[in-house]
């Protein structure tokens, strides 16, 4: 029987049998770990490449918007108000005479910042609380479960309107903090279930019988094998949080001018949709493509990490 094949593969050492004989190449291929198999499946999935390219482009323009948009998004001239697309201005102008193309490109930065900060915060808070509840159980699990039930009872959109209305000026940090406060319970439940399943596995029970402490069990044995559902949910949630930021900004309680945001532009364009539909088409299209890219990436990662779907 092969011994320590996954660890050997990860360390770059050819796996061997109990007598020290190196395994044949075809046997090594069969002994790949879950993460190796997942990466192998992702490389064969065209959806993964398409969504990844869209996301990489989005990240690029978020960091360097001036690379493809040379006009200041806050430089407006009322003489150009609601003018349609032209050779020098591909997306036309909005009601204030601002270049829609420049605002669409620069609007990606705030949306990506909110999405990333919210996802990282929710992933850390939810996975830690859910993981501890699932591992220790008992009174800790009961308390955290009841606390998460309370937060589940608050509609996130209504909560956003109430919470963010208390702040006169919306910012990336304030919007992200709100999303983290109300977004962690769902991931906590996912992490809790994954940890409960992982801690009952034979390799964890064996490590515990050999005297491994709580820290080693959690970090070395349970966490790596409970990460898959957390990663899948976080990937999809990133797109959802970007959409949530746009919705809150559309309602006037999220990001506020002079910040450049797709939600702000969609809100101002909705009043002129009959006279100047281009004002709504481009920021709404950018938002839809971004959310769709993260959802497709999350689906691809889920299919790769779920052995039942292979």
UniProtKB/TrEMBL annotation:
Region annotated Disordered, chain positions: 1-24
Membrane topology: Multi-pass membrane protein
UniProt keyword Metal-binding, yes or no: no
Localization per record: Cell membrane
Top-level taxon: Bacteria
Keyword annotations: Cell membrane, Membrane, Transmembrane, Transmembrane helix, Transport
Family, per entry: Belongs to the binding-protein-dependent transport system permease family.
The protein's name in its UniProt record: ABC transporter permease
Organism: Actinacidiphila epipremni
